[in-house]
Cryptochrome/photolyase family protein
Amino acid sequence: MSEQEVSIFWFRRDLRLEDNVGLFHALKSKNPVIPLFIFDDSILDSLPKNDARVGFIHESLSKINTQLQEIGSSLLIKKGKTVEVWQEILKEFDVKEVFFNKDYEPYAIQRDTAICELLEANNTISYSFKDQVIFEEKEITKADGLPYTVYTPFKNKWLDKYKSMAPVQEYDATYIFSNFYKGDFTFPPLAQIGFEESPIKVKTHNLKFVENYQDIRDFPALDKTSYLSPHLRFGTVSIRKLVNWAFHKNDVFLSELIWREFFMQILFSFPKVVTQNFKSAYDGINWRNDEADFKRWCSGTTGYPMVDAGMRQLNETGYMHNRVRMVVASFLCKHLLIQWQWGEAYFAEKLLDYEMSANVGNWQWAAGTGCDAAPYFRVFNPEIQQKKFDEKGIYIRKWIKEFDLGYGKPMVEHAMARDRAIATYKAGILK
């Protein structure tokens, strides 16, 4: 064991040195701070070896390491089962304090509880901080202390609380960067982690279109989205800086950031939604769950151009435009009567911005089984959606190269599918 007493800051979903709450507090501790990231085998083992998200994490860590090297420090990278890695670290270093930012997903809560118990058993103090949200857990509740399950009152309470403290405090730690541990840890190449480069890449976020967000957000051919979501997911941007900026720029864009926190609160308060309907009355729906139909949906060969373009964009790039996400999700659940869990799992595998709370929340919204969801009798017509939001077919032609050569017929007729969905829902809703 190293004789020098140290503190550790544990990076997870906060891959930045700028405005990082846990890191700020770590650097204010009396001991030099070792910055740590653990590639967790419990997560990695289920991923393909060219998973683009792992590549993005590695790239983001490399940027942090370069910044640290400029001040004589470096990033400690470990790989393995998290508890076993921490046992190894506690033997290697004289760790007095550990700092990290909270994560609210079920696995993360379980993992962090186990690590804190291990640290306590080794006389190491742990501190956790709110960093990836403006308001967490039970900070936005109804008057009786219960969580909101409808978005609009949640949003109104959120805004009232934010306005009372705006701007939210940001944490500039540059003046205490000298407290980073002076050491030259070896930064491993991606191959050493067991992964390889993916042709799919996370795009740089772009905020220049935000001021007109409400006018352009529904038109996928414009390609004028912020591409922020993967950066929020992995914490390469600060939610505090973003919200403080967005509050003065665009109310609709800010509302989308509040939706993110709404779904995170739902997941924290009702963890069953990971696999079960929020509204248990929908548990009796007799889903078709046809595997052949599901494969056609996954591959983007349903015969509905808006649906197929969206799925091909997802498969090729890891992205899908938000308006199109609603169309493809509604099509799977309503037209094909396939459980939302199937689509949620496929999106979890493919989306660069996959975040459990938003993915589960939005899928249940589309299926009509979630909190504050679209009513079950609302069935998007993909052809009308195409005419409204891609009238000239620019988006469709970008992703369906053969579109003008005579595109195939729809795999299911809309009117029939709509009637079938409504009848199936009516019959299946538990009284």
User: Anything to note?
Assistant: DSSP finds 19 helices and five strands in the chain.
